Amino acid sequence: GAGVSQSPSNKVTEKGKDVELRCDPISGHTALYWYRQRLGQGLEFLIYFQGNSAPDKSGLPSDRFSAERTGESVSTLTIQRTQQEDSAVYLCASSLTSGGEQYFGPGTRLTVT
Amino acid sequence: GENVEQHPSTLSVQEGDSAVIKCTYSDSASNYFPWYKQELGKGSQLIIDIRSNVGEKKDQRIAVTLNKTAKHFSLHITETQPEDSAVYFCAASGKGQAGTALIFGKGTTLSVSS
Fold first, then answer.
1. A48 closest CB neighbour out of B43, B100, B104
2. CB distance A56–B96 less than 8 Å?
3. Is residue A109 less than 8 Å (CB to CB) from chain B?
4. Contact A105 B43 (CB under 8 A)
5. Which residues 59-78 in chain A show a CB within 8 A of chain B?
6. pLDDT at residue number B98
7. What is the mean pLDDT of residues B63-84?
8. Which of A109-113, B28-32, B35-39, B75-79 has the lowest mean pLDDT?
9. What is the CA radius of gyration of chain A?
10. Among A11-15, A76-80, A103-107, B37-41, whose mean pLDDT is lowest?
């Protein structure tokens, strides 16, 4: 079956521009997670959705970062006024229920020049 | 909050040898410990996981052990093959409602030479 998909796979943007990253979770998965992976580092938790609600936004690094989820399906992560330190691979994962196995998408590689 | 340490950062073995990667965690409330394999150009794939109500789990050449008292867990790969070469990440449940978001170690780059 289809796994988690993310788009775009690569994004190069100029400093100061806004970007939107998309995640399509596995159909029927109620929980959705965004993580960030900087070069040579582990994954950092950003935000978690249960259904369309985000009970935990504690990992968002600044108020330039926001995310939403609609229809208990697709989610978008928006970064406003991008900075060079935002350059990373942004990974999305979904799980059938909270606390279940998380399945990761291939990620979006964001490069801010 | 939860903190996960992973060692070693790099590991080189000969084909057929065993490889062991160790992780420690800080939050005794963590109850779920997955391991992910990340290959170049591919997403992170869950290879094995363990919950805090068991001490060991095995799946063919891969096993994971958990010591709750010491708060550490380990990945064991036996009879390594070149295709096992990848970056391996351990994680512990920690953040978020009901502790469902994962806190990851910094990864171990495993190289298996033939």
1. B100
2. yes
3. no
4. yes
5. 59
6. 47
7. 96
8. B28-32
9. 13
10. B37-41
- Measured between beta carbons, the chain A residues lying within 8 angstroms of B34 are 101-102
Residues of A in contact with B46 (CB under 8 A): 101-104
Rg (CA), chain B: 14
Confidence at B95, pLDDT banded by 50, 70, 90: low
A10 and B CB contact within 8 Å? no
Instruction: Give per-residue burial for B18-32: e unless 16+ CB within 10 Å, then b.
Output: ebbbbbbbebeebbb
How far apart are alpha carbons A23 and A45 in whole angstroms?
15
Q: Which two tokens stand for residue B39?
A: 């290959």
Closest CA to B98 of B30, B26, B12, B15: B30
Predicted pLDDT at B42 = 75
Q: Would you call B69 an interface residue with chain A, using a CB distance cutoff of 8 Å?
A: no
Residue A42 and residue B106: Cβ atoms within 8 Å?
Answer: yes
Residues whose CB falls within 8 Å of the CB of residue A2, separated by 6 or more in sequence, listed in order = A26, A27
Indicate yes or no: CB of B101 within 8 angstroms of CB of A95: no
Task: Quick: pLDDT tens for B43-65.
Answer: 788 999 998 888 999 999 999 99
User: Which residues are bridge partners to A94 per DSSP?
Assistant: A32, A103
The amino acid at B1: G
Of all residues in chain B, the percent with pLDDT exceeding 70 is: 95
